[in-house]
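Ticket #4471: structure output looks truncated?

Reporter: J.K.
Steps to reproduce: submitted the chain below (392 residues) through the standard prediction queue, then opened the result file.
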Amino acid sequence: MNDAAKDSQSARDPYPTYAALRSECPVQAAASGSSGRHSYVVTGYAEARQALSDSRLSKDTAAFFAGKDSKRRLHPAVAHNMLASDPPQHTRLRKLVTGAFTSGAVSGLRPFITRLTDELLDQWPVGGRVDLVAGLAVPLPVMVICELLGVPETDRPQVQHWSAELFAAGEPGRTDAASYAVAEYMTGLITAKRLCPGDSLLDRLIAARDGADHLNEEELVSLAVLLLVAGHETTTHFLGNAALALLQHPAELERLRSNLEAIPQALDELLRFDAPVSTSTFRFTTEAISLGETEIPAGVPVLIALGAANRDPARFPAPDQLDLDRDATGHLSFGHGIHRCVGAPLARAEAEIALRTVLTRFPEIQLAGPSDRLEWRRTRLVRGLASLPVLV
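Returned output as attached by the reporter:
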């Protein structure tokens, strides 16, 4: 099998490789590309959970790459966002964000999510073939996060394009260019909202205060870009992966279809079974640490394979089986610790509403072809389908 075929097979089903790595050692060194430097890959559940909450693993990319020769030219708003910071900076930023990103905001969006889902499904040809990714999984999350942030409808297709470009694996030029485009756009949108305030999340971030503390201009742009990109790209793959998992397991699909009230509880198992984020964002050791039984020196990157950890048989028996009765609430698809995904409630609300509506309106939905011919997107962090043809 040539390298291209191996890459295709790995994208389609990375779990045998994860299992082989984990059985060899749940934490092991790996070469980091052409640089020759080493990083450590974590595939075990206990070790991943420990790593995600270990303060000796820093996410301060600016500190790690300071003085290092790098060809990357990401916009600072993308390169140095809240996810790439440590306490106390991270604590401060997250507190200001969560003060505006309330559970009430998510609850208030449910009618909009429901209406938008119905409008998208109205375009599906009954008795015909449709791409569930292009027809639902892509447009729904981007429209929801754009609505939440107050992005004008006419700008949303372009914003979605830039976001997709940011995840283009193996093409740093495209990623860097997109980072500048989306950062410049959000800078302009913030300026416009200062002149004409509204009631969107972005407006609330502009006005956010914690005593005398508030977000400066650079922090505002950075958070806006982060929420925009993280708020829909991962949810797109969550929806696509969950739909595929159900379609590949007809018995589980039928059980869920006959009891739609079980969908909220089923989401955890669907997230565990095929995580939309395959590898967590960048971390490196600030001092030598022990992770599991592996000694890791200071100053090296640690890559946490969330998808691998979610299928560790030591935590989830028979992990390669989709079991909607399983208690999968301990999955790591949203991360763990202080960096756990702040948008998790919104992602869950979108997935719940989307799956419920699809199964209600199209109870006989099925795959339009063999699943081994599906094309998976090759991205830097997330794992998801390029398309999912279904018959409705």
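Triage note (M.O.): checked the attachment and the full token line is present. The chain has one domain: 3-391.
Status: closed, working as intended.
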